[in-house]
Amino acid sequence: MNKKLFTKGSVVSAALIALGIGATSALAFGPAIFSNLTTEQQETVQQARELRAEGNIEEARELIGEVRDEVRADRFAHREAVKEAIENNDYNAFQNLVTGARFGVDVTEGVFAKMVEAHELRQAGDIEGARSIMKELGIEKKGKHEHGDKGAHWSKRQ
After folding, report:
1. pTM
2. Among residues 25, 15, 24, 66, which one has the least CA distance to residue 45?
């Protein structure tokens, strides 16, 4: 996982992480992730599981690596599309990209406008101003100690 995405604290990253579209690791193909894979990717993961059970660990790792790389590429492309929607202040495109995603807050046009404002502040170097807006929206960065070794991420404040 690219830790720079988390450490820079960009508003776009915050939105993406809160949306639950972060990258997955090769070991993260559990039931929740498995359901988001294409049929072909699911079959490949199943084949890798069978290879692993037979003791063909290296072949299984190669197959999982291929699926992981595909998933990462798809998520990177999606993340870039969401980032572009925020940068272009395109609420409709943003909504189409995040439909069904868990975000923690209802992203109305007003909330989206604040997210765009926070992103612009972050781009201009006003990190505290961006954080203030995100906090106002109820989205705050949480430290890695609050979530084990998963690293810092953004979520709705409880």
Report:
1. 0.59
2. 66
